[in-house]
Amino acid sequence: MPLPLFAVHLSDGAMAWPWVAGGWVGLSALLLIAMWRIREEDIPRIGVLTAAFFVGSSVHIPFAVLPTSVHLILNGLVGVVLGRRAPLAICVGLLLQYLLLAHGGLTTLGLNACIIAIPAVIAGACYPILKRLGLSPFACGLLLGAGAAAGAVTLNFLALLVGGSDDWQMLARLVLLAHLPIIVVEGLLLGVIVQYLEKVKPEMLA
Q1: Which of these, 114, 104, 113, lies nearest to 6 by C-alpha position?
Q2: Residue 154 belongs to domain with CATH number
Q3: How far apart are CA 36 and CA 33, in angstroms?
Q4: What mean pLDDT comes out for the span 197-202?
Q5: Is the pLDDT of residue 164 over 90?
Q6: pTM score, two decimals?
Q7: Which one of 20, 151, 182, 188 has the fewest beta carbons within 10 angstroms of its own beta carbon?
């Protein structure tokens, strides 16, 4: 059982080819939407979030119970700040992780990007809705940070369970279990960040 498969990023050879092809189709659609009418002033913000996503999700944390490590996903942060532009930062960040750190896979880049970017885009769309409902900035960040991370972990779980090139049922359950603490941390982290940004620079939020 290759340990790289324990991470949210799926490795080369882990998935059946129809799922790999579907991931590239999905990523193409996400990138087309993200690049539509992109403005020059959007580019620095995308660059900063790409760097934050790359660095934050490259730091692996040993898990005490299972023989693996986990890392922050930060897709909630990327989604709340970038909105529909989030797939650009996530795709570039994942590509850099593969090229520089050999983390994830090249053939599965499309599927990995979809798994992380789709919850990010949903989080970005939900942020103004939660604000209109009267939730505090911390509560908004808490819900969206935890929700986006849980969405990515769940999509990864389903992909391994249904589309794996081998029987990854036990692996899929272990991945899900290992990332439960990360979901809590992501919620608290984004709650603090959103609360801070609402005070000092609210225009940064999607």
Answers
A1: 104
A2: 1.10.1760.20
A3: 5
A4: 92
A5: no
A6: 0.89
A7: 188
